[in-house]
Each structure stands twice: as C-alpha cells, then as structure tokens.
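Have a think about this chain, tokens included, and walk me through the fold.
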Amino acid sequence: MEPEHIQRKKPMYPVSAALNTYLEQHSRKVSLPIDYTELLRFDGLIPKLDDNGKETLWNTVLLRPSDQEDLHARLVEVYQLLIADGRPIDYLKVASIDYCIYGNSQPFRIKILNQINDNHDYYYIKKADASRVYGLELEHLLSPNRINYMYGEGTLVEEHIIGVPGDDFIAAPQHFGGNLNAVRLSKEFVKFNERCFVRLLGDMRAYNFVVDVIQDFDKVQYRIRSIDFDQQCYEGRHRIYLPQFFKENKPYVELASTTIGLETAQQYANEERALLRKRYRLSQDQLDQLFDVMRGDTISTPEHVALLAAELAEVHGLPALRECGTMGELLHQHLRARLELDRVSG
C-alpha cells in the first residue's frame, strides 16, 4: 500500500447564486455584523506558542486600540448569532484573536470568555469557499455529527469542533482518557474511513480530524470527526477520499490490522453504510436540493472530474459513471452506488 498525497493546493471556489439560495432556504445565510476582510486589518502578529514553548501554526492578532472595542463588540455579536440566534448573552468578551496563514481558508480563531465563571469557547471566521460549504452540509446531513455554521457574503463562521488532533492522540493515547481501547478505536477509524469515501471528503490526514473520547458506563468510546472540509469533491484520485491510504494515518491502519482483522473491518464498514442509508433517507429532500445545486456547480477541474469518474467507474463496475460531467453529478451517482440505494429498500 503506497501512501497517498495531494499534488497542489486547492483553489477557492465562489459561492454560486444557486448555492446562495439553498443556504438562504435552510437558514444558513445570515447578515453578519463583521466580514472576513475586516479582520485582515490588524496591526501586527505574535507567534503563538504551545505548552512546551514551541511555535504553532497560529499567530495572535494585535489590534489598534482605536479599533479594538468596536471589533470585539461585533465579534461577540457573531458568537451570539452562532449559538443563540442573536439573543444577547451577558458577560461575554473576546479573550483573543488568532490567525493562521496556512490552509485554504486562512482562518481566524476567536476565543470567547464568560467573565462570570472564566469558561471559554472558540469559533472560527474563514474565507467562504463553495467546496467547504458543500463539505459542511454533507457532514451535517450524512455523518453522526451536527455542524453549526453560518454564511454571509464571502465569509464563513464555524463552531469549534471538540476533540484531540488525530496525530497527537495516536502518538500518546494514554494521555487522553485513560487506557486505550484498541478495538473500539479501530472500529471507529474503519467507520470514519467509509463515511469519507461515501461522501467524497478528501485529505483526511491525522491532523485534519480529531478524536473525541467519550466515557461510557463500562468502557471508553471514540468518535472521529473531520475538522477540515476544504477537500470536498476536488481531487481526481479516488484514494484521496480514503483516509487509510495516507501515510499520516499509518498508525491507525496498523492498529486496526492487528486488532480487528480484515473480515471484522468489512463488517464495520457494512454497518456504517447501513447507517448512512438511514441518514440519507431521513434527509433525502434536503439532499436532493443540495445535489441539484452541486450538479450545476464548478468545484473542481475538468481533468480531476474525468479522472475520478474513470476510477470510480472501475471501483463500482459502472461504465456510465464516466459520463458524469461535474463533481456534484459524480458524487450523487457514486453515493447511490456505494450505498446500493437503488437495490436496498426499507
């Protein structure tokens, strides 16, 4: 098994008029009190260090004193829109603003502090990218997780997804929730691998997902959650959409191969497809609307569409997939084939 890699940085794709209408219809589009470009007018950056004093990918934003009060007030308003439909929440303030220059969305991370109990929360402000919007919607509708986000004319606002970065977790799992339950973690990785492939979410390397450790009444449980949706339906190689093929995920693959074996892994993948069929049917009306929009949208290159169509035609034994002209059309047909929606009823 050769490790998979991505050749080039993905371009940003604008939110189309049809996607904008879909977001309005489903209460995702709101009038934001601030947009992404306003946050770029900072006065300076200071590298943010981790607990060991090493530099991270984040930088703390410095603002001019004349700008800080107004900007902080509007950032609190954004947080209230995100978690409370805009209803006022007392005693909140902005504790810090961090900026990451890496990645497609170049996010700002806003830390909100409750001054009564010193509890804090985070949210993110990013450049709007159609690929990411589709990824967020598909995650919300097809995964076990619900995603809270808002769109406003070129700006995306997203909630913080709680969990331990996948690379940090697998390097020292004993530091996060006690003894490792290898079988349950392996099961969850297999199910996550299947979810990503079914909905064509790419680039799920260990640092692009988190592990949420859940204490059950008898033993620990795990939930693996994506935190990066930029590579939704962009790349042409089908293995990009299978986390098992990334070298960064090799420890998870090796753990699963030594713990549960191929036959059991296939059973878990079948279980996840059954759950995905149920989620699809529960949200079918909205998914049909989303696919109608995606089929007419451009979120990849013609070369990538043609390559992925050819590879998926081989995977499914369906030559007709080669005729798909957009990633939206291809995703819809691939998803129906993978979940056997035309053959399974009930």
User: Anything to note?
Assistant: The longest strand covers residues 92-100.
